[in-house]
Amino acid sequence: MNPKLSQIIAKICLGLAMLFTISILIFIIIYILFHGLPILTYQFLSSPIQEMGKKGGIFPSIVSTLYLVITSVVVATPLGVGTAVYITEYTKKNKITDIIQFGSDCLAGIPSIIYGLFGFTFFVIFLGMGWSILSGSLTLAIMMLPTIIRTSEQAIRSVPQSYRDVTYSLGGSKWQGIKNIVIPKALPGILTGVILSMGRALSETAALIFTAGMSIRTPTSIFSSGRSMAVHFYTLAREGLSLPMAYGTASVLIISILFINFISYILMNQYLKKYS
Amino acid sequence: MKNHQEKIIEKSILIVAFSTVFILFLITLFIFKEGLPFILNNGLTRLFFSTNWSPSDGSYGIIPMLIGSLSITFGALILGVPLGVACAIYLAEFSSKTLRNILKPMIELLAGIPSVVYGFIGMIFLAPVIRSYFGGPGLSILTASIVLGIMILPTIISISLDALLMLPRSYKEGSMALGATQWQTVTGVLLPAARSGILAGVILGMGRAIGETMAVIMVTGNSVKVPSSFIDSTRTLTANIALEMGYAIGEHRQALFATAIILFVFIIILNILAMKIIKKRRI
Amino acid sequence: MKKKIAVLHLNVFIKDKIILKDINLDVYENEILSIIGPANSGKSSFLRVINRMLDINSDFRVEGNVFIDGEDIYKTNVNICDLRKRIGIIFALPVPLPLSIYDNLIYGPLLHKKISVERLNGLVEKCLKSASLWEEVKDRLHLSALQLSGGQQQRLCLARSLMVEPEIILFDEPCSGLDPVSTSKVERTMFELKKRYTLILVTNNTKQAARVSDRTAFLLSGKLIEVDQTKQIFTSPKSKLTNDYITGRFG
Q: Which class for C70: exposed (0-12), middle (13-18), buried (19 or more C-beta within 10 A)?
């Protein structure tokens, strides 16, 4: 074929592929919001779940979700950032970093159903935490680790070495440099990772069914069982309990995800601007 | 004093850093602890040499689910790989920087949409379409393949895009200087040079497809039988675990954990493979 | 004059490659010693041996001795942080931290102990004056340090080093990124500083060495070729190599 012609055809096809992919995204968002937004009232957001979700609202699920997301972030962030600090600041590329990297990459690839089984046998049964927000959050925290480690590592590496040298030259220790300069400078990047992993916690279903349980009551502490919005949505949709309620819940989920991605996008952009 | 404190901090951070490895070890330990007795007592034959899964009769053949998982993963790759690689090429070579900066976050958003929402759209929108055009129950291998194919797009796009963007500029300039068109450069120089990175993306996408649970539960119909065609309903290994774990006891539960071991090992192998490929390219 | 630094039979290896070979050199209190030499002659590494910044990348080995005030700084029980506090360094490119001018300055002292605000403020004023920057920034101490010009940034870094009250200040090609006006300001400041501190200046610019230093050392491929009074070096060097270098015949 004529190279010029194939160039034009290829460009059109690739553009169409891109367009198709983006249309799917837009279609999903609009489809859910179109059906779900009319359901979203203050009543819906603030009422308890009634008749297994056929009536009432999703207030308990919102509370459960908040509990789960916050607890898991609180557990995962220090672990993830600490790991990233170790990889970047305390050791050079060697066997140890390879092993840690391997652990993190494997955790990233393990499917959530396996996490669910692990959380169930380990947290729920072996450690006796029962179906609870705590079991669910700890499981989620493990699932978040790889994202937090990877983004923090990138963020920390992008802090110029000369900033660290300044601390050394003034007689500061390694940790002082990390604490005072490196981490504050990498913070927007680290936050981006934390926020993105909150998205993962928000969307998770399979791992939570086996760890946080399905209680429809509002959790009162991290030791209560509770169903997150995603789990509630799954139950509504799959058991065909109430389609409008399902759409409503899905809308809340989608809006939260949009919000989270928007925030992380803004943070990342600011961060990039500062360093380029 | 300061030196002492510094040592303590370094030690604690080292311990934190090994948490990932420790957790991976714990996961392996606990999954194997629950599932290994079944494999040791029965060998793998009881799982692999039977097409009959009916726990009430003590039959634990996972062949139907294995076929379900593999066919859906295969179908997802057929859709996801060409589409994903095409998008990556478009983003790397044919879009302006501004456009790329708008499109990339949208791809990330696609990755952020909960799998239950994908499953829901597949169930409520796609399945009826498939039923009316192809017949069958609608909830089928084809439906699941399409849903999963879309779900693995972000993985394939982002890793392939990284592979393409990491190529030295000189590759492209060298080819263009010889009078090649952009497309000739892509097919002749860039894709071959980035093929290992793209392959790694495909492998990771495959891992994601095999491991996906909630979305496939919603779109496959979940019937335990060897599917006869791509519009037939089926059940995957992951769906089987999720659906039956809630009430499984004794040997049945062990069998489910044994299935989880198989999945786990398979996915770890896929990950190691992908990592090896990515690393080799970096050197 | 009192000996401040004594270097004896110093060999330095980085990744098994020898960087400095058998260096013997004394530095006296309140003098400016220039170290000149072509690129990769080991000048900057020499500075980093003295304040043990070389320790940061671990693939190095030091043989021989470096004494400061008679104490061997490579002895095992030396507190590196305290050592570096006594020795300030100014890098080739100014590295203001992305903080305000004021926060840049107080960063150093606060690494070591809590100090009252009044004392800090006093110290800030004193050090900025010593670095001849006070008049230019006294009304905008809380603006970002990144907004200063290159020359101002370099003098800010100098003031920041002074904040931890060092005894020795190392300059690693401090004017390589500066215009002639800023350069002369930095040089004038160095003259003032030498009354209270011991200064070592590494420079690519032989004219600068001739202008500011009391003594000059010439390094070539890790070897100390010659060290003498600056006047002597620039008028009648003993070594032909030195003569070739300062007359611009190589390097």
A: exposed
